[in-house]
Amino acid sequence: MPQATATPTDSPSVPAVPEAGARREPPGSRTRGPTRGQGVSGGSGGSGSEFAPLLRTVREQGLLEHRPGWYARGIIVNLLAIAAVITGMVLTGGSWWVLLLAPPLALFSTRTAFFGHDAGHAQITADRRRGRILQLVHANLLLGMSQEWWNDKHNRHHANPNHIEKDPDVAADILVFTRKQAVGRAGLHGRLTRHQAWLFFPLTTLEGIALKIYGFRAVFSRDLPSRDGGPRRSTRARAVEGGLLIAHVTAYVTLLLTTMPPVPAAVFALIHQMLLGLHLGMAFAPNHKGMEMPDEETGKGWGHLRRQVLTSRNIRGGPVTDWFLGGLNYQIEHHLFPSMPRPHLRLAQPLVRAHCRALSIPYAETGLIESYRQALTHMHEVGEPLRAAGAPAE
What we know:
Elements: H1 47-60, H2 68-91, H3 102-120, H4 128-143, H5 147-159, H6 179-182, H7 187-194, H8 196-204, H9 207-220, H10 225-228, H11 235-259, H12 262-288, H13 304-309, E1 314-315, H14 319-324, H15 331-336, H16 342-358, E2 365-366, H17 368-382, H18 384-389
Parallel strand pairs: 1-2
Helix pairs in contact: 2-3, 2-11, 3-4, 3-12, 4-11, 5-9, 8-12, 8-17, 12-17
């Protein structure tokens, strides 16, 4: 649920790129073009000259114009679906059958996250105030996740995707993404790293809960932004966010305890939050895992076009894939044009693909299952040195 990220100009000021250590994509996963280290490190004409013609074409075709009607319909349908699930929870009268409603609630909660994401990128409206309100409603009130915390984190990711030192999404934590990060990990962290490919999807079931915890800490802890490098927020902004987060928790707990006994309520909440996290993980995992991670030196000549294209992966599919992944399956187009409305991403794809082909820039696109295989294979390879050394679990 990111902040409104300005559409790149002809000379985007987005910083340099990521760190070395990522594996090469397997044959067939990209369109024909130079492999890593062959014709991708030079800017050949400067950062602006490669992107400017594409940006001009996209603007001329009206693909950056907003689609408020499309979003209004989608948001209304999603809210009605959530209301229908809540009605079902009330009508079950506390029966254990109510647990069958946890999966659809998780499904529509993920749609809520997608709309919050788009609102933060100014995809829904150019009016910053309205966009902020939309995001606050979807993120803080409906999901219990901090808008500003996510905005700061996600904008840093967009500015430097896959940059080991600048992208918070690939910072070493429970999971690591380069062999350099894996060096010296022992104890519980070492065990997790050795088997992180197998543990990845089980761990994503905790993502929904983790996002809430990080958000609450960011809003209610005075000194927190220092850990994440985020900006200090005004007292008023924190009060608004905090009030909505408390309202979410209060409403959520009240709903559960008034529609079912405590034990089923706890089980329902667990299923709902775990499936929400899993769905979010399934949408995020294919986007950058296993893609290029150059360091400051190897990515020095990259402009906005190469920085975003070479670190991102698209997922093939149709309307079902678009719906399930919330448009994030067009990750390359989304990173090139963050404020482009979701329904326009598929229309921009042929233009971006052709432009990359003309410049001999690899354009990664694969199926959903294959994308998971590539991402998990990369994570498995990162943990190989620890497995080979038989590092003791201290």
